[in-house]
Amino acid sequence: MSPTVSSPPRTIRIASRKSQLALVQTYWVQEQLQKHFPGRTFEVHTMSTQGDKILDVALAKIGDKGLFTKELEVGMLNNETDFAVHSLKDLPTRLPQGLVLGCVTARENPADALVVHEKHKDKQLDTLPEGAVIGTSSLRRLAQLRHHFPHLAFKDIRGNLNTRLGKLDAGEYDALILAVAGLERLGMSDRIHQVIPSEVSLHAVGQGALGIECRAEDSEIIEILQVIQHQPTAYRCYAERAFLRELEGGCQVPIGVNTHLDGDTLTLTGMVASLDGQRLIKDTITGAASDAEQIGIQLAQRLRQQGAKAILDEIFAQIQR
Ligand SMILES: NCc1[nH]cc(CCC(=O)O)c1CC(=O)O
């Protein structure tokens, strides 16, 4: 008799924020993995991040470097959890030493949506009245909409999706700009009044996809995560993230992208805008999907030569004041 000792597979601990959107996303990941690995136990560990706690300061002022991810990262590095589920959009392009982007899931519609107050239900972005107040805390949305619709006014808004919609319905704003993906995941597609076309507003890097972060050394977890990796989305997001990484300097900036994958050909469009919407620099580059990161880096360099650097330097100086 051979004394084979087979220990049961380790329980896998998933880290998540506590917001409703974060939990919907995390439970989806848990369910997919549970289906693929019925013999395993996947448990969810929730925690609050700095971004969930500081609700009274404009995001652009605090800078968004890891605001929604840091506490989850510390937990993984301390071996308290094994991987963290994030909205890829909230995951910084440079990760702490020892952690990697283990997987990117299939993307939902990455576009932004216009959500209006009842009284504007027959309006679109271009027909909202002069001075209509649009709620957004994203400099990217602000700059692009100002560029195309100078008749609109903008006001910062924070809080989770339900809080924001409550403020809209209470009349504090005429309309909001929110990610289509977030509204869809929370079963609130009926609030999408207009999907904003990419000609008007390019979306955020990684928007609509989930990014799963784990320890670089944990090959068992990395292998498990491959069952929910969506390679076309991953190629697109690698290019988008390389573009942002190459351009960014430490805070939230008006940078938008759009990507398209046709067979093995990847097309990346990127833009940088000034906060007043007066200057908007945009270009497109195409290449092999396997060169996704190089495509992102090249586009960033090209935009910088076309004037993006001056715009970004100005913004950093303004925000630090
Ligand atoms: N910064 C908040 C955030 N992070 C991810 C989403 C939406 C879902 C997604 O983009 O995947 C949102 C809300 C929004 O921008 O409206």
UniProtKB/TrEMBL annotation:
Cofactor binding mode and count: Binds 1 dipyrromethane group covalently.
PROSITE patterns: PORPHOBILINOGEN_DEAM
One Pfam family from the record: Porphobil_deam
InterPro entries linked to this entry: HemC (IPR000860), Porphobilin_deaminase_cofac_BS (IPR022419), Porphobilin_deaminase_N (IPR022417), Porphobilinogen_deaminase_C (IPR022418), Porphobilinogen_deaminase_C_sf (IPR036803)
GO molecular function: hydroxymethylbilane synthase activity
Enzyme class (EC, first level): transferase
NCBIfam families: hemC (TIGR00212)
Annotated family: Belongs to the HMBS family.
Protein name (Swiss-Prot/TrEMBL): Porphobilinogen deaminase
Organism: Microseira wollei NIES-4236
Taxonomic path: Bacteria, Bacillati, Cyanobacteriota, Cyanophyceae, Oscillatoriophycideae
